[in-house]
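Appendix B.2, paired examples.
Example (i):
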Amino acid sequence: MDHGSSIPFPSERERAILAVREAVAAGRVHVIRRRRHRHVFARLRLAHDGMLDALRRLEAHHVRAGPMRDHHDGTRDVWVFGPVVEGIEMYVKVAIGRTEPAGVPHAVVWSFHPAQHPMTPAGDDSDVQ
């Protein structure tokens, strides 16, 4: 029965961003350490906290691709974001999952570096992949 309320449901990309923010807030973010990450942090003078801040600030228009299946853990979805950090468009690849039974989100940052080419924003949720 419709009571006339029109509570908007978050889109799939909004749910993914909320999960990343929850993971950051809960301290449940794991960064895969790669040589490229060290160079990025040094070049941008971006500490680990700066990367977490960039993850907290993700918005729907930063989505470039997703959800994609995580080939390392089938319980997680992988998303690609293109936020601008310190004036540089970044390539950010994050796997998002939930820990059972509480459903607490966790995030694995696979990539966090300047984009190698301009990244095209994803369209609406119907064509995100």
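Example (ii):
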Amino acid sequence: MNPFDHQRRHPILTVTLFIAMLAPGPFLVVIAGRILKAYIPNPNVLAMAAGSLVFLLLFVCGMIAGATAWLLVAAHFAERKVIEPFFIYPGVPFFSALAARMFAWAYRPPADHQQ
């Protein structure tokens, strides 16, 4: 099945997932930029390269955090079989496995507290 077909059938989930994934990144980058500007007002080439790496990592971590938060909230509103194709899709080696683990963690069975 084409993953875009699933996105077409659930446009609200798709749009909210994209917003949740893309919103934290720029916010974190702006905060990090202001902090770095305060500590390094006139950066050299090495500092700019390191800052670019920090910005990239913060953006990716923000996307992962946003997707995790969306998954935890959406789990209460949508069924597992509807959300699953958004996270279980083989494609990108590292991130597909990470998304599958996030999905399994969010939909884990409740812990049995009987002893």
